[in-house]
Amino acid sequence: MATQWDLAQLLLTALLILQGSWLVRSYKTTDLDYDVEYVDEEPPYFLARSQTFTVEIGQSVIIPCDVENQGTHQLVIMRIDSSGKSHLVSAGGIKLVRTQRMKIERTRLFILKARRQDAGLYSCSFPTAEEVVLQHSLDVQYPPKINSSNSPIQHVAKGASVTLSCTADGNPKPEIRWSYQGGVLPSGALSKQGESLTLEDVDRHVEGSYVCTADNGIGEPSSAVMKVVVEYPPEIITEKAIVRTGAGDQVELVCLVRGRPSPRVTWTRDGQSVNHATHATAANDAHRHTLIIRPVTEQDFGAYVCIAENSQGQKSAVVQMTGLPRQPRFNSAPAGGEVNSYTLTWETDSYYPIIAYRLVYRKAQANGSMDSNKNWVDVYRQVDVETVTANTHHVMAHTLHNLDVATDYEAVVKVKNNYGWSSDTDRFAFSTRKALAVQQSTSWNANAAPATACPNLRYTALAIVATLTAAAAALPF
């Protein structure tokens, strides 16, 4: 329904048009009648040409409708918006819009602090003069503004794909680029142009914030941040697969767990949940999940299972708590310094004292034979109580006698404490002194002539040495 303002505009326009449609040139009257003569004026024409004006939002612009032969013709200025709808701006020099940002000065329209809605076609015309029309175009440029994007947080399952979308309004049309906050995109590029970004076969390494930035050179760029959260099954490792302890000690069993959503972690032993009401306490710190047992009793020894579970799956890891010694490790040098003997040394860790060890050794097998039961010499020794230390780290030694000269051997050892035997060491290869054997093989045997029997050979060797020494001294360096 038309408003009073619209009706007033139409009425004023009609009066202005009628007023300028003819001109009274002469007037005659008698007692009985009168005669009026009307004469048409020369048609007006515009001095300006059609133009396109481009301004940034907030700037001012002048729309010219300069005219010649206007006479009494009334100038009408109209704005035609992007939808094709016409809006009357002025008629006969009278402004017909409410805004104070538009002013009419004679035949010119002044637009102050242009806004987006001011853009469009501006028509200058004389309704009483056919085909006398001038049309200008006003382009109002404005900064970009992101008006559509994905949800700020995108949840996606590991191995799936996700597409991030972003559109923006602005004049000129903004360019949209994607970047990764704090780094590079998964492709390795710093940025990517386009309204969408697709991440395929995602894993937790592509998690983070992705930034959509729209820029058209007008004002400041516009940005939106979308966070990608990758949901994946639990990943779990243990700090120590085997924890060695003893009665009365305090021990921590630790699992390092990652997953999204954050996994729920539980501990079991022998298929039953650990009773936290006794002397076991669970503590969680971010990704580190700890089962604290204090004080340790012999009944606590065994396998503990750390179970992590979320909506994406389940994973577990085993921590063995034991009082047995750690597998020993040989630390003696492989090449021995004695002709017929060799001292083996090894180290191990045990919360309890080492009370015995078992050592087996043999000559190295020809051609790399893997016969594990052939020609082994078995040595069992109990450890003297006086040599036992309170330290949990133990270094031990055993000397083998009556070995063959310059011969390769191999050995395996294991140790025992009050809770039992450790596992065997890996095979350790060693040898008796070999340098003496080489010397003996190059010496004269007992039946050979003594060295003094060949004095000429000795003198010849000395001469050769002297000659080589003199030649070396004469070299230029």
From TrEMBL:
SUPFAM superfamilies attached to this UniProt entry: Fibronectin type III (SSF49265), Immunoglobulin (SSF48726)
Molecular functions per Gene Ontology: axon guidance receptor activity
Any Pfam family the entry gives: I-set
Keywords: Immunoglobulin domain, Repeat, Signal
One annotated Gene Ontology cellular component of this protein: neuronal cell body
Residue ranges constituting the Ig-like domain according to the UniProt record: 44-135, 144-230, 234-322
Matches recorded under PROSITE patterns: FN3 (PS50853), IG_LIKE (PS50835)
Superkingdom per UniProt: Eukaryota
Domain Fibronectin type-III: 324-435
InterPro entries given in the database record: Cell_Adh-Cytoskel_Orgn, FN3_dom, FN3_sf, Ig-like_dom, Ig-like_dom_sf, Ig-like_fold, Ig_I-set, Ig_sub
Signal peptide: 1-26
GO biological process: homophilic cell adhesion via plasma membrane adhesion molecules; synapse organization
Name of this chain's protein: Protein amalgam-like
